[in-house]
Amino acid sequence: MSTTPFALTCGDRNAFLQGPEPAEVRVPLSGHGLKTVKKKAQVHPGMLVADHPNDKRGEAHSPICGVVAEVNADCVVIAAQAPAEPAEGEEPAKTQAEALELSSLEKDGLKAALKSLGLDLRTYLRRAETLIINGLNPEPGIFWAEGMLENHKSTLEKGLELLKVLSPAGKVILAAHNAGISLAGASTTAVAPVYPNSVDRLLIAAVTGSENAKGVHVVGLHDLFILGRTGETGLPVTETVMTVQGKNYVVKVGTTIKDMLEHAGVAVGDNDRVVLGGPMRGKSVSRLDCGIGKQDTALFVVPDSAFPPVADAACINCGECILRCPARIRPNMLGRYSEFRMYDKCKDEYIDSCVECGLCAYWCVARRPVLQLIQLAKHQIVLQEQQVTACSLQGES
Question: How many helices (H) and strands (E) in the chain?
């Protein structure tokens, strides 16, 4: 994405304000290699700093001009520094990556180009008869969807143009809070902007009228926007759009949580919880010097006095989570079975039907980490299935 501010009219609730110009960034490295830069290397915006061995996972790039201060398993740390003046006869240092022209590329070429520009292709590549653009804000308290739909329509349409090359579909539907909103190349279906309607599986049911609709793929508005910005600029993804305590910001990837909160004027008390992501499904962070990633869409500070803390308490059998569950399963039993590593019992309780909306944990009177227990069980079940598959393959050989 370019470094041009997205700021609109002052006081506009949907304006995309510019984030801080950090003195240091910590570009996250989730599974990326560490072969492209070394300590003390000079870097510029859009310069490759880490690759990824998976052909569907995007590379990582520097968002600023600077010098690599550290390379470790978690991140590439870059200290901001203007490029040195060239000596006589020398070429000036680069201050921006070269843009790629994406419009004329066909599917395979576009895939390779987008990977090199830092996009996660797993989000976009899916064979489907119906493609739904999730135009709702993902969780309560996040509201960049309105700004994108109202003020950056051309960017979204550019993203949709590229998306149709990656994932051609017979029907494209924009699911939005208002049927009057439109995107070229898509029809619009109004969906009540009430959580958890924004959860993909529930959105599919709302749009298609079926809980078991086949051949449907959902792409989030944030992902479509990032794809569109990449298509417009031809530059690597070095920014994200996120809601921070009631305002929308365009933030450089790798900006620390601490710097972002200070820029937004948000103070953090000793026992406050800082949540990266939405209040329902986000994750609490244990340190404020972590870098913001390109998929991060929100940042919240939950005051210590706002809610009772999550506790390692026993279920009191109130049934509140069952009443609130949109999947009509028993989260209380899933939490118990996960806690005692009874993962086969989780399968009996239809754990695959859980949409991970977080309502069970939100309404839990005992303040149990129900969502996290269910996510743990899902993870362990996948590991068990992988072990069984590996053993079967070994037996065949």
Answer: 11, 16
Predicted TM-score (pTM) of this structure: 0.92
Separation CA 185–CA 180 (nearest Å) = 15
Q: What is the pLDDT of residues 321-361, one digit of tens each?
A: 999 999 999 999 999 999 999 999 999 999 999 999 999 99
Rounded Cα–Cα distance for residues 269 and 288 (Å)? 12
Q: Which residue has the tokens 């029907």?
A: 171
Q: What is the DSSP letter of 247?
A: E
Secondary structure of the chain: what % helix, strand, coil (to 5)? 30, 20, 50
* pLDDT tens digit sequence for 191-206: 999 999 999 999 999 9
Supply the DSSP string of 217-233, one letter for each residue. Answer: EEEEHHHHHHHHHHHHH
- Tally of CB atoms within 10 A around 178: 13
Going by C-alpha positions, the residue among 260, 222, 241, 235 that lies closest to residue 25 is: 260
Integer distance in angstroms from the first to the last C-alpha of the chain? 48
* Short-list 183, 218, 214, CA closest to 199: 218
pLDDT, position 35:
78
Phi/psi for 179 (5° steps) reads -65, -15
Do 115 and 55 contact (CB within 8 A), yes or no? yes
Tokens 């110009």 belong to 21
Distances, alpha carbon 342 to alpha carbons 200, 308, 316, 339, 348, in Å: 28, 28, 19, 8, 10
User: What 3-state DSSP class applies to 273?
Assistant: strand
Upper half-sphere CA count for residue 104 (Cβ side, 13 Å)? 2
Nearest-Å Rg of the Cα atoms of the chain is: 22
Nearest CA to 164 out of 217, 213, 98 is that of 217
